[in-house]
Every structure is written in structure tokens, then in C-alpha cells.
Amino acid sequence: MTDATKCPNCQSEHAYQDRDLWMCPECGHEWSAAAGAAADAPVEAGVRDAHGNVLTDGDSVIVMKDLKVKGSSSVVKGGTKVRNIRLQDATDGHNIACKIDGIGAMNLKSEFVKKA
To answer: pLDDT per residue over 39-62, tens digit each?
Structure first.
């Protein structure tokens, strides 16, 4: 069985086609063959912000919501502009290293920022 006919959700081999959709009897997931082909297309690698824009080293970002600083009573306010970010590989999701005025060096998750 090809990967196109396996369930993308649970990898079950018991998926079947019903008109334009593929269905998985084990998990109930439904998907279209066109969506499966689009998923196989190469995706541009990189860190993306909350809106899906690709971020690069040196970009400026804006924090979208108030973020508590762990181990401190400080808060990074929503709307704060952070300049000259550095991207890093992180297993905990904190993939942006930066310096914030008044707080200092810290790491942010890309899902809480938007490209400026």
C-alpha cells in the first residue's frame, strides 16, 4: 500500500476512498487526495511566526500578547518590538533568542510573535 492511501493521522492501512475523500475507519479522519498530494510537496523549511511568515536572523518581530517571564515578576507586554532576533534549534519550542529593552536576554516561542 502506498503512503498516499495510508491515514495521515494514525498511519492505518485500512483507509478507503469515498468519492473525492479518503476515510480512515480506525480514527475517523477524512482527507482529500489533493490535500495528500499537497502535503507531499516540499515545504519551505524555517521558523515561522504566528501568521506563517518565514523568520530569518536579524529580523524584527512584535510580541502579540503579554508574556510572563519565568522566574521573575516581569512581563513582556504585547506590542513590544524586538529587533535583531537570532534563530536557534530548540526542543522546547523557544526558537528565538533576543534581547528585550528593560528585561535583557531571553528566548521566545515563534508562535507568540509576528514579523514587523
So the answer is: 554 445 688 999 999 999 999 999
Q: What is the pTM of this model?
A: 0.61
Residues 23 and 69 in one domain: no
Residue 98 covered by a domain: yes
Range of the domain at 96: 60-115
Picking from 14, 7, 10, 11, the residue whose alpha carbon sits closest to that of residue 33 is: 7
**H/E stretch holding 86:** strand 86-87
The total number of structural domains in the chain stands at 2
Residues 30, 68 within the same domain: no
Please answer whether residues 111 and 50 qualify as being in contact, where contact means their C-beta atoms are separated by less than 8 angstroms: yes
Rounded distance, CA 36 to CA 100, Å?
A: 41
Where is 76: in which H helix or E strand?
Answer: strand 75-76
